[in-house]
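Tokens for chain A. Residues wanted.
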């Protein structure tokens, strides 16, 4: 398959189009603007619909309506815009609607900076909306992974009838890399996918037919829906964990990082090895469900310390790392935030200091 040079945001939009996405609604915010811009050109070419909503709130609720027709639908925003999505995403979860959306993170808190950051981790993995629902959250460390994850996200959303989030950042969104694009789904394939959701769509039914808009009414029916979702989340913890373990087998120092920070940490691991420090890396590819077992199963007779690497101050993923490690070794921090980029030099210096303390 031919390789093409693409910017991250544009590659995400093209991958979604090829996966059969035929509705996009969104609102401008840096650094994700290239996603709606690309869709504005691309959707008319494939008989899809692009809408620039009057706000993020309007856009996410348009997504709720579009997906009820069985149409593969998507939206995107950045950080503060994603906060405004919370109510609509909560509704989509309540109705078990398979939306896909993207957060190209920017610095915070609040409106913050337009430069890249990783300060939405807890929002993405623990509190995307009301009601305590969960989602599969994928986080790429390359433009190719962003393409592959976006393409698959629609299948995952429909498999579980649940929203799926692509959590990336301004580095991944704006950098350009060569990618291999997946095949374009045919009109026949798209029609078949839409028909498969007909039974749970809000169109194509007679007035006598019952259509599921929400999972229940009041009282016990909502509890039953929550129990069903809880069982699904437990299944994810066994079957949807995605993790990379890089040079971990003999490692004495473990670097924990995701997304762009993991890409930087990989370079640091190789350089530290060249210096004689046995470093390895655990990278959550899906930050939810989190790969707890990868940390729990470490040999702590050999592993003497973990370095949590994030473009977030205070750290956020560290909460999950601590939960997995249970105090069995020290966890140090290597942090940047507010649009300040992580560097391999900073990671290496932090790893050297940790090595001095624990080895």
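Reply:
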């Amino acid at each position: 398959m031919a390789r093409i040079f693409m910017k991250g945001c544009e590659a995400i939009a093209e991958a979604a189009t090829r996966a059969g996405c035929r509705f996009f609604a969104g609102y401008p915010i840096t650094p994700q603007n290239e996603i709606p811009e690309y869709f504005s050109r691309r959707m008319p070419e494939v008989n899809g619909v692009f809408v620039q909503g009057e706000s993020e709130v309007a856009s996410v609720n348009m997504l709720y309506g579009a997906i009820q027709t069985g149409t593969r639908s998507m939206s995107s925003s950045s950080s503060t815009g994603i906060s405004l999505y919370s109510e609509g995403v909560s509704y989509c979860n309540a109705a078990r609607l398979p939306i896909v959306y993207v957060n190209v993170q920017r610095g915070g808190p609040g409106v913050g900076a337009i430069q890249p950051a990783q300060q939405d981790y807890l929002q993405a993995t623990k509190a995307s909306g009301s009601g305590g629902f969960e989602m599969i959250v994928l986080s790429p460390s390359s433009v190719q992974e962003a393409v592959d994850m976006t393409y698959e996200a629609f299948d995952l959303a429909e498999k579980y009838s649940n929203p799926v989030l692509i959590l990336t950042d301004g580095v991944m969104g704006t950098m350009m890399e060569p990618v291999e694009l997946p095949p374009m789904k045919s009109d026949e394939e798209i029609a078949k996918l839409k028909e498969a959701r007909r039974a749970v769509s809000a169109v194509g039914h007679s007035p006598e037919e019952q259509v599921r808009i929400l999972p229940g009414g009041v009282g016990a029916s909502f509890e039953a829906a929550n129990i069903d979702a809880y069982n699904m989340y437990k299944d994810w913890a066994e079957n949807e964990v995605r993790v990379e373990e890089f040079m971990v087998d003999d490692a004495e120092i473990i670097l924990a990082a995701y997304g762009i920070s993991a890409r930087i940490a990989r370079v640091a691991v190789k350089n530290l090895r060249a210096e004689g420090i046995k470093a390895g890396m655990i990278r959550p590819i899906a930050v939810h469900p989190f790969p707890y077992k990868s940390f729990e199963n470490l040999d702590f007779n050999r592993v003497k310390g973990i370095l949590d690497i994030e473009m977030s101050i205070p750290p956020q993923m560290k909460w999950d790392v601590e939960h997995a490690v249970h105090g069995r070794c020290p966890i140090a921090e290597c942090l940047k935030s507010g649009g300040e980029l992580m560097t391999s030099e900073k990671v290496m210096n932090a790893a050297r200091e940790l090595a001095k303390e624990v080895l």
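Residues 243-358 form a domain with the Rossmann fold fold (CATH 3.40.50.920). The mean pLDDT is 94.
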